[in-house]
Amino acid sequence: MMKTKRIGLTQRVEIIPDYGERRDALDQNWTRLLRKLGFAPVPLMNAIPSNEVYSYLNELDLSGVILTGGNDIAELEDAQNPAPERDRFEAVLLDAAIERGLPVLGVCRGMQVVNLHEGGNLVRIDGHAGARHRVEWDGRILEVNSYHNFGIGGLGEGLVATARSDDRSIEAFRHNARAIEGVMWHPEREEPFQEEDLSLLAKLFGAEPTS
Question: Could you say which of 90, 108, 175, 181 is catalytic?
Answer without folding.
Answer: 108
